[in-house]
Every structure is written in C-alpha cells, then in structure tokens.
Design brief:
This protein is an all-alpha fold. Helix 5 packs across helix 9. The chain has 2 domains: about 220 residues, no CATH class; about 40 residues, no CATH class. A two-stranded antiparallel ribbon has the order 1-2. A hairpin with a 4-residue loop joins strand 1 and strand 2. The longest helix is centred in the last third of the chain and has 33 residues. It is about 70% helix and about 5% strand. Keywords: Membrane, Transmembrane, Transmembrane helix.
Length: about 280
C-alpha cells in the first residue's frame, strides 16, 4: 500500500523540481493523496518544459556522436597534450551522459508532453486502495521506512550535488561540451563561455535527474500495491466461480503469498478453478 511517507516523497519531488526549477507542471496534496496538474500554467512554462525534453534528446545524441567520433577520425592530436587522468574521466563522463538520459527519455516525454497521464494514475491510487482494502479486508500498511528514507536522501543528494559538481566538471573540461571549445582550459577560461557551458550542463542534469527520481518514485508506489491487487483478483475469481461463501475463509487465511498459493493449489485439486485464469 502507498503510505503517507510515499506521498511526502511525491510532495518533496514536486517542490524541488516544480516550485524551484519550474520543470514540473504539478502540485501535490498530501492530505487528499493527489497529484494535481496545474491548470493555469503559463504558456512560457509549458514550452520551457517541452524544450528541456527536446534539449536532453539532442544532448544525448550529441554525446553518442562524441563517443563514436574516435572510431571514424582516429585519435585527436590535441588530446595527447591532456593528462591521462583527464582523458579517462572524460570518457566515463561521456558514456554516463549518453546512456543515463537515454534510459529515462520516456519519462521525460510523459511529463513534458502528456502530463495528464501521471495525474490520472496517481490520483486514482488512493481511491483504489480504499476500495481494495474494503474488499480484501486489509487494514494494516506495510512499513517502507528504510526505502522511503533512501529515496528521500536520493532526492536531496541528486538535487544538491549538481550545483558544485557541474562547475567543477566545466572548469576541468571533462564535460561533453569541451570538444566545442577545444578542450583547453587556459584558452577557454572566459567568463561567457564558462557561464554558457555551466547553464547548459545544469539544465541537462536537472532534467535527467527529474526523470530518474520520477521513475523510482513511481516504481516504489507500484511495488507497494501488488498484495492488494492479487487479493482483488482472487476475490474476482471466487465470485466468478460462484464461491462467494469461500471469500471470508480466503480473506482470513490468505495472509501471505505462501498461504495464498497453498489455498489455490487445494482449490485446483478439486477442479474448481480449472481454466479460469487462462
């Protein structure tokens, strides 16, 4: 079951990436357990969210192009003058900048282009869980304190560490955009170029981290509901077979997966549910 702590995570996520960075078109309501789409959002903010997703897509393709460039052009003579450590770190940063955004582009697309999808899914969770509890008779909530704590730390760390990490990476010329500037720190140590590279890198990182955190929060909410879903499906099958009188016994005894599977095996032995799940 989605606990109040999970809705607090959603609220924290919306406050960090929505209220502070304007990358989310949502508002969270913890008492009502709802994620609400902002109806009066400005056109500039709506276009900004979509442009950020488009930019991350182009940036990902750019990073893949940088990784493939040595295959067709060979070793860059200017890179020989750079230290071995910087060259190795650049490769790892380029691989991360190419693979991580591409793994979560679908989440970026949903938030930017079809934001109503997330609202519909999450807003129905509270009502669904209430009805499922009445059907299954489950009144206790599982404790996900450690998972929620880890997710909260992940939200704060991924949000705050970007601010010192990006300027450091730009100064050391290990960001993917160093190839456009020649990669030489001394020659490109100009305020305008450094500021532009920092802004571009910050925008890309925050957009990617937004998608990553949204993905893991949704997975956490999904992970917390399978027991109720299984119980509701079992109840439907009992009703379909005309065995509603078995529901009370099933509800009282099927308290865990092992017991539930044992009861199903006993029912199958009598041939009662044969072919129902097919």
């Amino acid at each position: 079951m989605a606990t109040p702590g999970m809705w607090e995570l959603i609220d924290l996520f919306v406050r960090l990436y929505g209220d502070k960075l304007y990358l989310l078109p949502y508002k969270a309501s913890i008492p009502n357990r709802q994620l609400l789409l902002i109806s009066n959002i400005s056109r500039k903010r709506r276009y900004f969210t979509k442009l950020c997703t488009l930019y991350v897509s182009c940036h990902t393709l750019f990073c893949f192009a940088i990784l493939c460039e040595p295959i067709f052009k060979g070793k860059d003579p200017a890179a020989v003058e750079t230290s071995q450590t910087i060259r190795v770190v650049r490769v790892f940063v380029q691989i991360l900048a190419a693979l991580l955004p591409s793994a979560f582009l679908a989440m970026n697309y949903v938030i930017a282009v079809t934001p109503v999808v997330a609202e519909v899914i999450l807003c129905k969770i509270a009502d669904f869980q209430k009805e499922a509890q009445e059907i299954a008779g489950t009144k206790t909530l599982h404790n996900y304190f450690l998972v929620e704590l880890g997710m909260k730390l992940m939200l704060w760390i991924t949000f705050t560490i970007i601010f010192p990490a990006i300027p450091t990476g730009v100064y050391l010329a290990i960001d993917p955009r160093h190839v456009l500037m020649g990669g030489n720190i001394e020659e490109n140590n100009k305020f305008g170029l450094i500021l532009a590279r920092n802004i571009i890198a910050l925008l890309a990182c925050f957009e990617v981290m937004k998608a990553v955190n949204a993905f893991f929060i949704l997975k956490l909410v999904k992970y917390s509901t399978p027991t109720v879903l299984d119980m509701e499906e079992n109840t439907r099958l009992l009703s379909q077979c005309g065995l509603d009188y078995c529901f009370d016994t099933f509800k009282e005894n099927a308290t865990d997966d092992a017991t539930r599977n044992k009861i199903w095996q006993q029912l199958y032995q009598y041939g009662t549910f044969e072919g129902i799940q097919k």
